[in-house]
Each structure stands twice: as structure tokens, then as C-alpha cells.
Amino acid sequence: MELRDIEIFLTLAEELHFGRTAERLHITPSRVSHVIKTQERRVGAALFERTSRTVRLTPLGRQLRDDLLPAYQQIQQAIDRAAADARSITGTLRVGYTTPWGADLAYRAAEAFQGRYAGCSIRVQEVPLDDPLGPLRRGELELHISELPVQVPGVTEGPVLFSETRALMVPSGHPLARLDGVSLEHLAEVPLIGPRGAAPAAMREAHVPARTPSGLVVPRGPSYALWSEVPALVAAGLGASIVAARAERYHDRPGIVFVPFHDGPRLEYGVLWRTAGHAPAGRAFVDLLVDLSGAHPDDD
């Protein structure tokens, strides 16, 4: 039964008059009659008793009305809320990213979002890794597709968008490049490149650990501000970097090799926003990011 047909049935159940029902719904009385007859054929019994003077619900019609009305009202309330949110989604929404797959997702979402909400424009920009949370905290961004975990006051970690197996990006001449796989213990054998600045402790430990699980010190290599610097530093033989496995599809080039890890947790990337303010436009964009990412491990 279509939603419009349900509306016709419930309106007639309230008005108990074909003419008033048609006038209220801006349709013809014959349309009302046709819909009711179709519904009665579908259920196999009369829903209304009709005479030349009166229209009454049958016991079955009353039961159907009582069953349908709460669900119909809930649907209408949901539509009204969505319409209200859509009217409030205006202005500019600024979205940051740090990885190229985060950029791909942000731009795909921006195109789809502006098709739905013409009154809202999306501005997408790269966030430097030497100040990963600064733009968000200063109000220069509303959303940030970021490495996780963050675990800092004032910043909310939203849904995980990518859950990735790890790889170690190493110089092609390094002994580790000849292995089929590495462990976290191998990090003690190569300088690890890390971001400049003060990244959150939880994020730094996940992506640039200070020690291996057994307690060996992980040597430090040079630092970087933008992710695009990392492949060049590795190709120059200056160190290695823990990366998502999909980074090979974006950054493969002469002088570097991607060796998968066979231990350790997965890397996660999600969407962040300021805890103090999350507007309807931001909520709608986050929902779209989740839909487009699929929120599946190793999803493209």
C-alpha cells in the first residue's frame, strides 16, 4: 500500500465523507472511491459501510485505522524533521583531510551533498600533520577526516570511515624491503619518519610508536608537515613510515617498497568535529561520508 493510499484511507476514516476527503486532499471523489475499493480487494473484506447518507468504518476498518495511524504519524514526523533540517542546511561547510583517500571521499561526498542541499557549499582542504587538530579547534573547519585515535578534550571522534591493514613503507635498498612481511619488532631496525609538531599522544603512539611491543627503542628519522613529503623522504633512504596498505595504490614509485605487517592492530580513519558545536549541515555530511565509505575494512 502506497503512503498516499494510506493517507486517503486515514483521512476518510476521520472525515467519513468522500467529498470532504477529496476536498481536503485536493483529489477527486472518484479517486478516493477507487483507492478504497482497491484496498478492500487487497484485504478481502469491506473497510467501510456505505449508504446514500452515511459512511461508517467496519470493525475491520477500525482495526486497520488503529494499526496504521501511529506508524503514519511517525513517518510524517520524520519527513517534517528532515525538511526542517534541509531548510537549515545553508552556508559553507569546511571539511579537512590528511590522506589522499580521505580527500577522495571528501570530494565525492561534497559533490553528492551539494546536489541535495543547493544552499550549502562545501570547501575541502588539506590539513598539515604538524598541527593536525589546530584548524578544527580554531573553528577553521567543521569536520576533519583524520587518523584515529585522537582522545583529546573538546574533539569528538565520529564514525570510523576506513579500517586498514598496515604496511611499512621502506627504502627499496633496505634489508626489510626483501621480506614478505614485517612485525612491529622490526621497527627497531629502521628510523621511523614522523610528523613535526605536537600530535595527540594516542595518535602518535598508533602511527609513530616510541618502542616496539618488547620495549626496544624505535629510532627516529626526519619529520614532515604534509603527507605528500613522506614518499620522497623514504625514497631518499632517510627512514620508513607506517602506512595504510592502500597507500601503495596512491604512492608507489621508484625507491620505495610496501611491506605488509603480520601483527599489530589495524589503522583507523574517522571523522572528527568540535564537541561544542555540530550543526545540521555537519550531521548530514557525516551521514553521507558513512554511506559513501561503506565503513568496510580496506574499502576503496
UniProtKB/TrEMBL annotation:
Keyword annotations from UniProtKB, A to Z: DNA-binding, Transcription, Transcription regulation
Record GO terms (molecular function): DNA binding; DNA-binding transcription factor activity
Record keyword Transcription regulation present: yes
Ranges of residues in domain HTH lysR-type: 1-58
Domain of life: Bacteria
PROSITE patterns (alphabetical): HTH_LYSR (PS50931)
One Pfam entry name: HTH_1
GO CC term (a single one): protein-DNA complex
Family per similarity comment: Belongs to the LysR transcriptional regulatory family.
Designated name of the protein: DNA-binding transcriptional regulator, LysR family
Lineage: Bacteria, Bacillati, Actinomycetota, Actinomycetes, Micrococcales
